[in-house]
Amino acid sequence: MQTQPSIKSKIARGATWMLLFRLTDRGLAFVSTIILARVLVPADFGLVAMAMSVIALIELTGAFSLEVGLIQRPHPTRAQYDTTWTLRLLFGVFGAVATAAAALPAAKFYNDDRLSLVLFALAGNWLVSSVDNIGVVDFRRELNFRREYFYLVSKRLIGLPVTLVLAITYRTYWALIAGTVAGTAGMVLCSYAMHPYRPRLSLAAWRELLSFSIWLFLNNLLSFLYWRLSHFIIGRSQGANALGIYTVATDFAALASTEITAPVNRAILPGLARMADSADGLKHGMLQITSAVLLVTLPAAFGMAAIAEPMVLTLLGNQWPGVVGVLQILAFAGALQSLTANNHSAYLAAAKTHVPVYINAAFVLTLIPLLYLLRAYGVVGVAWAQFGAMVVSVTVSVGLMHRYLGTSLRDLAGAVWRPLSAAALMALAVYWLDQNQFGFTSALPPYARLVLGVIAGVVLYIPLAGGLWVLSGRGEGLERVVYERARAVLQRAG
User: Fold this and answer.
1) Per-residue model confidence as pLDDT tens digits over 20-39
2) What is the pLDDT of residue 2?
3) How many CB atoms lie within 10 A of CB 132?
4) How far apart are CA 123 and CA 101, in angstroms?
5) N or C, which end of the chain is more exposed by having fewer CB within 10 Å?
6) With the CA atoms of 77, 81, 87 and 91 taken in that order, what torsion angle do they form, in degrees rounded to the nearest 10?
7) For the chain, what is the HEC assignment?
8) How far is CA 48 from the centre of its chain?
9) How many CA atoms lie within 13 A of 175 on its CB side?
């Protein structure tokens, strides 16, 4: 049995690798979006978003997250690996058939005939993805996130060049579809090249795997509504152009929140599963992780909201002005979500798989009436509905933290107040500077405002966060790690 410090060290390294993957993946996607926004139109993005919403709906029927059961178990058997692979293969066949069957009805629902051919093409993607090697789950089980990084990033590295070449050459939304299929095929090939496990057809362990995963299925069902309900409503009522604006705004806002919390969740789950027998260890570990994550997500989200206008004008161009207001609202919603986002892994590690269901249910049950009440305000109204539902969801999550993890409101406040205060002060200052042209007498071009805003944010946030850490007694946390590493580097240099 590994000691807790050893596990924590592996969790930290794993989180670093997963954050590196997310930065690589989203960085490449970010560059791709900037290029594609220049050669495609919002309706192209909206059309693909419609197709992906249909795919996500079909995915729900098999969203049991069976691989989580392999990670949570201390000694999974070959039968469990093979059964997981076989169930995923069967579901891939079902997904392909269901996607093809849904092509014409979906095109009619969205009033866009182009959607049917897109869905027929994506049906083939189901079959390709379903044969992925289940052996690669060992990368996470064994906390070998270096190999996990190279496995995951293969999809983007293969799919991105295909997308860009076709988009620039033909200026069509088909480039997005072709890139998706190419990336999936490349990732499957890499899974067999990187791991020696060779799965076989078997259903011997289906009962025990599904009994663990039923709550995960319910949670994934609610997660679908969490992320996709707004897309269905916008696509149906406002069309592809409005959905394209909302999708791009969502992607940008995610860079500052979920694109950071999601990889951390992926990294900490196997480590926390080994610490689950110690309630105090689990609680203390989660608070440290939350504090470290917030030191990154809060300034990123608040700073993005502060300079949303010059960022959109610089990176996307003048044809995307509708993104600005939506992006600002969603950035704050993402910052709010990051307060409790990483608790999800703690619940799974402790086999409390029902708790995330309660949290997502609170979000969805709040989102539905808010979407109805704010429908007259278009895409901006949808963004405000997301924010309002997030307020309720986080409030419920904080209450459940106390009950299931033993974390009090005071404990959470201790982890939150420093990054929240520093990020809020930084964002207010950057917004004021941007509105006053950073002291220049003439109006600055958007790219200059963006560069100056980023520089001002970094220059202001680091001393603010460091100063609050010193004033609070220099306790444990990411600040101490950065301080000690910096001091060691300076001592070696001296």
Assistant:
1) 777 787 778 778 878 888 88
2) 47
3) 21
4) 9
5) C
6) 160
7) CCCHHHHHHHHHHHHHHHHHHHHHHHHHHHHHHHHHHHHCCHHHHHHHHHHHHHHHHHHHHHCCCHHHHHHHCCCCCHHHHHHHHHHHHHHHHHHHHHHHHHHHHHHHHHCCCHHHHHHHHHHHHHHHHCCCCHHHHHHHHCCCHHHHHHHHHHHHHHHHHHHHHHHHHHCCCHHHHHHHHHHHHHHHHHHHHHCCCCCCCCCCCHHHHHHHHHHHHHHHHHHHHHHHHHHHHHHHHHHHHHHHHHHHHHHHHHCCCHHHHHHHHHHHHHHHHHHCCCHHHHHHHHHHHHHHHHHHHHHHHHHHHHCHHHHHHHHCCCCCCCHHHHHHHHHHHHHHHCCCCCHHHHHHHCCCCCHHHHHHHHHHHHHHHHHHHCHHHHHHHHHHHHHHHHHHHHHHHHHHHHHHCCCCHHHHHHHHHHHHHHHHHHHHHHHHHHHCHHHCCCCCCHHHHHHHHHHHHHHHHHHHHHHHHHHCCCCCCHHHHHHHHHHHHHHHHC
8) 19
9) 24
Given a cut of 80, whether residue 214 has pLDDT beyond it is no
**Residue carrying the six token digits 């009805």:** 105
Least confident of 337-341, 344-348, 390-394: 344-348
The predicted structure's pLDDT at residue 477: 67
**pLDDT of res. 360:** 85
Going through 301-416 in order, the beta strands assigned E by DSSP cover none
List own/partner pairs for 307-311 with CB under 8 A and 24 or more apart.
307/430, 307/431, 307/434, 307/449, 307/450, 307/453, 307/454, 307/457, 309/434, 309/446, 309/449, 310/434, 310/446, 310/447, 310/449, 310/450, 310/453, 311/252, 311/450, 311/453
* Contact (CB, 8 A) for 260 and 295: no
Q: Could you tell me if 161 and 31 are in contact, meaning their C-beta atoms sit under 8 angstroms apart? A: no
Neighbours of 125 (CB within 10 A): 21
Buried b (16+ CB within 10 A) or exposed e, 381-391: bbbbbbbbbbe
- Separation of alpha carbons 366 and 200, rounded Å: 44
Q: How far is CA 203 from CA 84, 197, 325, in A?
A: 8, 17, 50
**Dist CA 272 CA 269 (whole Å):** 5
CB 194 within 8 A of CB 151: yes
Contacts of 219 (CB under 8 A, 6+ apart): 353, 356, 357, 360
Provide the whole-model pTM. 0.66
